[in-house]
Automatic annotation (TrEMBL):
Keywords: Repeat. Its EC number is 2.5.1.9. It is an enzyme of class 2 (transferase). The keyword Repeat applies. This is Riboflavin synthase. InterPro entries: ATP_synth_asu-like_sf, Lumazine-bd, Lumazine-bd_dom, Riboflavin_synthase-like_b-brl. Lumazine-binding repeats lie at residues 1-97, 98-194. Pfam families: Lum_binding.
Length: 214
């Protein structure tokens, strides 16, 4: 599990691509390597990957074809920066919201509005995810826990403070960039449960108090 509080952004040192498979190698600073072991989970751009190998500062991760197809890691090349978050531990402060690291879609940046102390980004709002992308709801974008500022039809926006712009890749994000998206799992659970309940006439009758009445 992750919290959506990105710890840093790192350049990918090496990408070894094969058919439906890729290995990413990054150079982790010492502070980020403490306690890190083979098999540990780390989120790259919000995508949960497993540490394959540790060699000094070099940390390697494998990604299968499905991961490369669904996430923007499929287009990452050596030198590109990605957001990094180590897996949460029991007792950690939850500064964002709980995430699984399972990316559901890629969305394009449609508009960028920047001022001295604020950055507003507008994104696509995919039809399949409309029910979960709500005004003032949570969303994870490239692994960064954010609050949706506004929803307008098939688009939504977020506001980024200077700290977020400095720590994450969003400081240099441009219109047209593909961004990994994971909806808030609690919102998804509530929406899906209510939808199923309302679709069942028996349950709907019980909720409205019409069961057994003629």
């Amino acid at each position: 599990m992750f919290t959506g509080i990105v710890q840093t952004r790192l350049a990918v040192a090496q990408v070894d691509k094969q058919q439906d498979f890729a290995t990413f190698t990054l150079l982790f600073p010492e502070a980020l390597r403490q306690g890190l072991q083979t098999g540990a989970s780390v989120a790259l751009n919000g995508t949960c990957l497993t540490v394959r190998a540790l060699d000094g500062a070099a940390v390697s991760f494998d990604a299968i074809g499905q991961t490369l197809a669904v996430t923007n890691l499929g287009s990452v090349t050596a030198g590109d920066e990605v957001n990094i978050e180590r897996a949460a531990r029991i007792g950690d402060e939850i500064g964002g919201h709980l995430l699984s690291g399972h990316v559901m879609a890629q969305v394009r940046i449609l508009e960028r509005r920047e001022s001295a102390n604020n950055l507003v980004l507008w994104f696509e709002r995919p039809a399949a995810l409309l029910p979960y992308l709500l005004d003032k709801g949570y969303v994870a974008l490239n692994g960064c826990s954010l609050t949706i500022a506004e929803v307008a039809g098939d688009r939504f926006s977020v506001h980024l403070i200077p700290e977020t712009r400095e720590v994450t890749t969003f400081g240099s994000a441009a219109v047209g960039d593909a961004i990994n998206l994971e909806v808030d799992p609690q919102t998804q659970a509530v929406v899906d449960t209510v939808t199923r309940m309302l679709a069942d006439p028996a349950v709907l009758s019980q909720l409205t108090g019409t069961a057994g009445k003629s």
